[in-house]
Amino acid sequence: ATADIGVTGLAVMGRNLARNLARHGHVVALHNRSVQRTRSLVAEHGDEGTFVASESLAEFVGSLKSPRAVIVMVKAGEPTDAVIEELTPLLDEGDIVIDCGNAHFADTRRREATLREHGIHFVGCGVSGGEEGALLGPSIMPGGSAQSYQKLGPIFESIAAQVDGTPCCVHVGPDGAGHFVKMVHNGIEYADMQLIAEAYDLLRAGLGAEPPELAEIFRTWNSGDLESFLIEITADVLAHVDDTTGKPFVDIVLDQAEQKGTGRWTVQTALDLGVPITGIAEATFARSLSGHAEQRSAARAALSQESGIQVDDREQFIEDVRRALYASKVVAYAQGFDLITAGSAEYGWDVDRGAMATIWRGGCIIRARFLDRIREAYDADPDLPSLLVAPYFADAVRAGVQSWRRVVATAALGGIPTPAFSSSLAYYDALRRLPLPAALIQGLRDNFGAHTYRRTDRDGSFHVQWAGDKAEHPA
Ligand code: 6PG
């Protein structure tokens, strides 16, 4: 046995991860259900490093040095379970199975517990950066046992993106922690993209500008606080012209956003854990709404349209939208990190939030300049109650709040939907407001259902005899 690590499942992500590993000097065992894929990988890229190709799973396992490390890169759900089931009897105690797909963290917890009974380490590992990242340096979020990371750490850190000499890979925490953090990463990715889309929509309506001009605005923004991969590719996509029609590409794409499910999982998990990730939720629902073509067409026919905004000072408006985008983005990240905090507490993972910001600085889809600021905020105060209260972000949001309000008000008056901008501003306002009208909700609950309430001035729970003498009683 000569291979340091193996990859089974050689579709584009598995193929690129295998090549990345080989390029970094690791001997890589290869396996794919249809042998053709394995052969073509070796034929096309065999000179990039040392590959050991196998035609059967048993042969593949046999080619790996002990303790074996096997990356499973197949579709999430049943296909992953099927491969694990086939693999388990071929492995020995101490071997490591790594799932680098976008699995639900609950599945990862279940698989980890099952394999642990066999003495096998199961590592649910988030990998971000798409196809190119997998090949050139992704952000890697491995969960699982600390022991498994002793073997995997040096390998994964060698193939991960590097920022200022630091690899974008760290042991996230036990069992499902890696996949949980990757799920939240994707939720933030949804919010980031929705915010960018709202900014684009507002600028287009407000300035009456065409996509090439808007591309330039985003390109300019990419040299400031907003510098990030998603802003950079927004400029590219807006500048792109459709080959067949000569129209701006963005005008020939059907306006219905799809999703594979990680955003939905993020919102479902947040509901279960009671964490208000409103920006991510609005972003996820906005995709759903866009897909309801029949309802949208009925609404266009039945409901009058009053959309259009009046902009007097173009430069001011562009700056307002930029600041609103930045402030809303801070909220989305603050909420995402709150969900990581809650998941970590619920499952006992002890996730280091500053370390998550560090490994998201490069390789992944949400890589951005301001992740350095997030890391600094958690370095300064590891128990930070919300990113929004870290001095840097508190100042940044405060500086932009008037712009933010103007943008949300302008959008509302002009009939331009900005669910993520608006809900993020509402979150920012709600977090600071005292009292919240939640007091009235408690009163209503006590009135119709005797659900009781707590008082501002005394401990304990109380109930009013609403149907009788309206006297208050301790509950
Ligand atoms: C990444 C991406 C990747 C994938 C998304 C797409 O980090 O590299 O997040 O995992 O592109 O899952 O998700 P949707 O299809 O749900 O938009």
UniProtKB/TrEMBL annotation:
Pathway: Carbohydrate degradation; pentose phosphate pathway; D-ribulose 5-phosphate from D-glucose 6-phosphate (oxidative stage): step 3/3
UniProt-listed InterPro entries: 6-PGluconate_DH-like_C_sf (IPR008927), 6PGD_dom2 (IPR013328), 6PGDH_C (IPR006114), 6PGDH_Gnd/GntZ (IPR006113), 6PGDH_NADP-bd (IPR006115), 6PGdom_BS (IPR006184), NAD(P)-bd_dom_sf (IPR036291), Pgluconate_DH (IPR006183)
Top-level class of the enzyme under EC nomenclature: oxidoreductase
SMART domains registered for this protein in UniProt: 6PGD
EC number per UniProt: 1.1.1.44
One Gene Ontology molecular-function label: phosphogluconate dehydrogenase (decarboxylating) activity
Keyword field: Gluconate utilization, NADP, Oxidoreductase, Pentose shunt
Function field: Catalyzes the oxidative decarboxylation of 6-phosphogluconate to ribulose 5-phosphate and CO(2), with concomitant reduction of NADP to NADPH.
Quaternary assembly: Homodimer.
Matches recorded under PANTHER family: 6-PHOSPHOGLUCONATE DEHYDROGENASE
Stated name of the protein: 6-phosphogluconate dehydrogenase, decarboxylating
Protein's organism: Jatrophihabitans cynanchi
Name of the coding gene: gndA
